[in-house]
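User: quick one, fold this
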Amino acid sequence: MIANPRLGQSVRIHYAKRYGDYMPLQDLIGTVVVIGRGRPRNHGVEVAGRIYCIPCGNLIKEGR
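Assistant:
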């Protein structure tokens, strides 16, 4: 899990096994473009030209 991502950092989106089959963004690689500061801690991640709001607990370092 990445608690404090940096702008431009490459991340992999990963959900729990019980939700992974239903989430279309599972295991895709994106770039952090917006950093959330409040609660809940969500970040804007660009995947294939679109920006998605992803909880910080679902982001892991790319290549892991």
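User: anything notable?
Assistant: The domain at 10-61 is CATH 2.30.30 (SH3 type barrels.).
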